[in-house]
Amino acid sequence: MALTRDRVEALRATARDVREDIVRMVHAAACGHPGGPLGMADFMTTLFMEHLDLTPENRHAEDRDRFVLGNGHTCAGYYALLAQKGLIPREELMQFRKMGSPLQGHPHRNLELGIDFSTGSLGNGLSVAAGMALGAKLNGWSSRVYCASSDGESQEGQIWEAATSAAHWGLSNLTVIVDFNDIQIDGRMRDVMDVRDLRAKYSAFGWHAVEIDGHDVVAIDHALREAKAETERPSAIIARTTIGKGVSFMEDKSGWHGVAPNDEQLAQALEDLAAPAS
Amino acid sequence: MLTIQELAPLATGETQKVATRQAYGEALLELGNQHQDIVVLDADLSGSTKTGMFAKAHPGRFYNCGVAEANMAGTAAGLACTGRKAFMSSFAMFAAGKAWEQLRQSVCVPELDVKVCASHAGLTVGEDGKSHQMLEDITLMRVLPNMKVLVPADAVEAREAVRVAYETPGPVYVRLSRASTPVVFADEYRLELGKGALLREGSDVCIAACGVEVAEALGAADLLAADGIEARVINLASIDPIDADLIADSAARCGAILTAEEHQIRGGLGDAVAQVVVRSCPVPMDMAGMDGEFGQTGTAAQLLAHYGLDAASLAQRAKALVQRKGN
Q1: Could you count the other beta carbons within 10 Å of the beta carbon of residue B304?
Q2: Per-residue pLDDT tens over the stretch B92-117
Q3: B60 interface with A at CB cutoff 8 Å
Q4: CB contact under 8 A, A127 and B77
Q5: Which residues of chain B are within 8 Å of residue A136 when distances are taken between CB atoms?
Q6: B177, B16 Cβ separation under 8 angstroms
Q7: Residues of chain A found within 8 Å of residue B79, distances taken between Cβ atoms
Q8: Between chains, do B78 and A129 touch, taking CB under 8 Å as contact?
Q9: Domain residue spans of chain B
Q10: Does position A19 have pLDDT exceeding 50, yes or no?
């Protein structure tokens, strides 16, 4: 069933709220990674608010859905969405990256807060997600396991070890969403080390693979529904995005991978995000 | 009061030789029969690591990951998140070496029930040479917070190590050998995490050993006795946590400690014992092991002799240590 017009509007509004949280959190921390999560906000919001079966009530249930943030540095948006779902107290968001906070600079497993796994070192997430999917199948659970990854992370060899095994074991309950923004720390991904056609690669590895506009919530929702309908293969959704999406001066700039906005930049960012979408 | 562990009839010529990896395979199969929560992963070496026995009996709970150890460690971590106790095996070189980062990030940081049972460790892998003689795994594993490290001395203790690994929550590393080695312990022996075992009493010098070196240390003690030197021999299979009380007691009683391991002394058993000794009861020490070099091809026995790890070499070294004690 396709999303209603109202639901699409609601998801867009939530994605905007998540983007506001991201810039506020990174600004408050005075360090962190705003660009990536701003670009991922649309598909992450659609996944978390429309598909991921994780609630304050079922957070400790064995057969709930699971999520692994492979590109762990983008966790500001992840935490903001866990707050949207009532798993992280809103006031905790502004403690992001501060001494004593469970909201570390990269995610650390905390089932109470809905954080399913510890990540931060690129390449590790998809193997773990595949292990969770394998365990869910072995246990006869209907759980789905979602993993976020990125074009830069796809340079890690372990991703392709995991891609091989997930297809070999027929993990149809596993979906990876790859944030493809053509930006990494040292510049354009295609200049640093071009991973080329990830849809074709995942497809060649035996996955159901699609490429979509990662800012189109209808397309994202459709791709996630298709993934759920798969019965034999794991699914890869290559989401084309713009890093820094929604904040004029951050868009498509590798410089905003890991830099916090100052007071002036925060005000500008919030103004950009408040403006009606073009 | 310390009691001397009952040993298998080593000196009477009835010594049987069994590889610790063989004992692992048998113990894992038995444990797997009893406990449905055990899953086993291997990286295309199930015949050599002996996980193949479990695989044959429980194909639904066995995952061959192919030649991809990093992915195996991550997959084991994911399985552990679904309520399973995941045993993963490969050669020590690859399990501890190739997958170290994944064991740190995906197993030790979230403190998951992953048991790394790594075979073909140390010099005694023999003819395969430098590339396969893993001499750094104890260092790599004991430096990791949350990782427990066990180095069984024989088949009896290896069986026990598998039980302890299963019963101990969180990550555990078990170091296993390829070579068939003497059975040291009597069948009733029970290994306890964080506890060493007193194998022979003496007060002139203490030899603290782990793994295949335990049998060599007992042999060295026989040679020393013939020269009028009484050596205490202790087995330190539990390297992390280590039995600090037994080490301190041995330092106080003997006044000198020699460690023996088929591993680099930098960061290995020697280092672990020295850390206890310097903090609690400083006495002269020496460390038999690899001192900053790689091995070479050869039979297990040739290699142990060449690198000063056979009974005769340990005895000679212990004598020199006794001399130092008097100075």
Answers
A1: 24
A2: 999 999 999 999 999 999 999 999 99
A3: yes
A4: yes
A5: 82
A6: no
A7: 131-132, 134-135, 138
A8: yes
A9: 17-182, 197-326
A10: yes
Of the CA atoms within 13 Å of residue B79, those in its CB half-sphere come to 24
Place of tokens 């594993």: B141
Write down the CATH number for the domain with range B17-182. 3.40.50.970
What six digits make up the tokens of A8?
């699409």
CB B135 within 8 A of CB B262: yes
Report yes or no: A122 at the B interface, CB cutoff 8 Å.
no
Q: Which amino acid is at A138?
A: L
| pLDDT attached to residue B219 | 96
- A117 contacts on B by Cβ (under 8 Å): 77, 81, 106, 110
**Helix pair A35-46, A5-29: axis angle to 10 deg:** 150
Q: What is the mean pLDDT of residues A164-176?
A: 98
Report the topology of domain A5-274: Rossmann fold (3.40.50)
Task: Provide the residue ranges of all domains of chain A, joining segments of one domain with +.
Answer: 5-274
The span from the CA of A267 to the CA of A272, in Å, is 9
Residue of B nearest to A116 (CA): B81
Single-letter amino acid, residue A275: A
Element (H, E) at B39: strand B38-42
**Whole-number pLDDT of residue B327:** 62
pLDDT in tens, A37-76: 999 999 999 999 999 999 999 999 999 999 999 999 999 9
Q: Give the 3-state secondary structure of residue B6.
A: coil
DSSP string covering A209-241, please?
EEEEETT-HHHHHHHHHHHHH-SSS-EEEEEE-
Q: What is the pLDDT of residue B230?
A: 98
What pLDDT tens digit does each residue of chain B (327 aa) get? Answer: 688 988 887 544 456 899 999 999 999 999 999 999 999 999 999 999 999 999 999 999 999 999 999 999 999 999 999 999 999 999 999 999 999 999 999 999 999 999 999 999 999 999 999 999 999 999 999 999 999 999 999 999 999 999 999 999 999 999 999 999 899 999 999 999 999 999 999 999 999 999 999 999 999 999 999 999 999 999 999 999 999 999 999 999 999 999 999 999 999 999 999 999 999 999 999 999 999 999 999 999 999 999 999 999 999 999 999 999 876
pLDDT reported for residue B12: 46
Average pLDDT of chain A, as a whole number = 97
In this chain, the answer to whether the domains covering B17-182 and B197-326 adopt an identical fold is yes
- Comparing CA positions, the residue from B93, B102, B40 lying closest to residue B65 is B40
Q: Report the alpha-carbon distance of residue B7 to residue B167 in Å, rounded.
A: 25
- What number of CA atoms fall less than 13 Å from residue A151's CA on the CB side? 31
* CA angle in degrees (0–180, nearest 5) for B38-B25-B210: 105
- CA atoms of B245 and B238, how far apart (whole Å): 13
Per the residue annotation, which of B6, B26, B30, B69 is the catalytic one? B69
Sheet holding A235-240, edge to edge: A66-69, A145-150, A174-180, A235-240, A208-213
CATH topology (fold) of B197-326: Rossmann fold (3.40.50)
Give the separation between CA B273 and CA B223, rounded to whole angstroms.
Answer: 24
Is residue B55 within 8 A of residue B62, CB to CB? The reply is yes
Of A126, A135, A157, the CB nearest to B82: A135
Q: Of A160, A192, A161, nearest to A257 (Cα)?
A: A192
